[in-house]
Amino acid sequence: MTKTLLVAGGGIAGMATGFAAARAGWQATVFERAAEFSEVGAGVQLGPNVTRILQAWGLADALKQVAAFPAGLHARSMSTGEVLATLPIKDAVQLYGAPYVTIHRADLHGLLLKAAEREGVQVHSDAVVQRVDQTPDAVTLEVLQRGLLQQHKAAIAVAGDGVWSPLRQQLLGDGLPEFTGHIAYRALVAQADLPAHLRSQDVSVWMGSQAHVVSYPVRGGEYLNVVCLAEGQLLDDDANNLEALQTWNAQKSESQTLAELHHALRGACTALTDLMNACSDWRLWPLCGRPAMQGTQEHVVGRVALLGDAAHPMLPYLAQGAGMAIEDAAELAMQLNHATTEDVPERLLQFAQVRWQRNARVQARAVRNGQIFHATGPMRVARDMSLRLMGARLMDVPWLYGYGRS
To answer: Which residue among 96, 185, 216, 403 is the active-site one?
Structure first.
């Protein structure tokens, strides 16, 4: 059998995987269920652990065309607006060999899609992967493409089909993701439409009680991505509504959305309330997830690898969801560099052994960060005091950002 690889899912995880595999000498095909290749959502933060990979892939110049390069990450008090501590992320190049950037999800996805197509990856839209079957020697995907059911055979298959991955359900049978009780309210606003005092080219995290707001520039700094992450704001009767939970782009009435934001940000300082009031067209994203990974079996089953959210969905409180998917793709490609079609299961197992503990650590740290960002009472007082005293030393994450640096 030739070196062929099939990918279910054409989002960031799937496109990064197809591109990286093609660079490693494999013939890659990506199947995306949507009618058009696109990426929903708003902003993404990419730490130097991720941009280092994009640089190695030859995508640094393409990244510069669409990303923003903030100088600082500011931890703020939601109630007073005080900057409790600042991490000078402009120093990431010096410290970690690559920049810290912020980027619109669609721009990151478009960058990867173009790179994949240049590398010879075949991409198919309106193609729903319905089933995976495998033998010791090959794997087959059953794909419904534009009304026609087809079977595609290869040496490897990759499930990069997201947090609600149907392939994971077939392979692992470990149930659906669960609603975390957290909702992200997302908005994108042109900086030119904001008063001067609300414009920013930095990252700010405004920490409150059971909620926080993060803002940062995207699209070369021309837009500001604003996200309020709040606890306890269930979608009316939708907490058990599967269709409602699976959407990235839900919308309520403007009055209802504003009422929920007002409740989540009660007691917020004027600067933050002014920023939130300047935003409109809010989109809702119910955060669903799984417990941290428990072992290699959640990454690999025979000749099938699970990557990104299909393997390890994570809360956005460490800003590493897209990053871990890209790290997965890079490690898989590294294993494929040395693989033959016969030793694929062994190489995939090696991939899983390298990745699962790191992904589990990032998942757990993201949960912990959410608890810290949303702290109340004495824990909140201790958090603010620690940030004032320790500053950047408390905010830097060397084990995360320095990963894979030679």
So the answer is: 216
- Dist CA 105 CA 128 (whole Å): 22
Q: 3 CB contacts (<8 Å, ≥6 apart)? A: 25, 26, 27, 155, 336, 339, 341
pLDDT digits (tens, 9 = 90+) for 168-196: 999 999 999 998 989 999 999 999 999 99
Angle between helices 321-337 and 344-373 (to 10 degrees): 160
Paired strand residues for 145: 127, 148
d(CA 360, CA 338): 26
In the numeric block, the tokens 């917020």 are attached to 268
Type of residue found at 184: A
Sorted by where each begins, the domain ranges of the chain are: 4-176+290-401
* Residue 259 · residue 227 · CB < 8 Å: no
Contacts of 32 (CB under 8 A, 6+ apart): 9, 10, 11, 14, 123, 124, 125, 126, 127
Residue 403 annotated as catalytic = no
Kindly give the parts of the chain with pLDDT less than 70. 37-41, 233-251, 406
The CATH fold assigned to 4-176+290-401 is FAD/NAD(P)-binding domain (3.50.50)
What is the distance of C-alpha 395 from the center of its chain? 20
Could you tell me where the DSSP H helices lie in 85-181? 92-96, 105-118, 166-172
The answer for residues whose C-beta is within 8 angstroms of residue 213's C-beta and 6 or more apart is 78, 204, 205, 206, 226, 227, 228, 229, 265, 272, 275, 276
Which is nearest to 323 in space by CA: 130, 87, 52, 40?
52
